[in-house]
Amino acid sequence: MEIIDELFSKYTNDLFRFIYSFTLDVHQSEDILQETFYKAYIAIDSYTGESIKPWLFTIVKNTCMDYFRKQKRIVISEDNFFLNLKDNIDIENDYLFKETFSEIIAIIEKLPKDQKKALTLKVFKNFTYEEGANIWA
Question: Could you read off the pLDDT of 97-112 as tens digits, one per residue?
Answer without folding.
Answer: 788 878 887 888 888 8
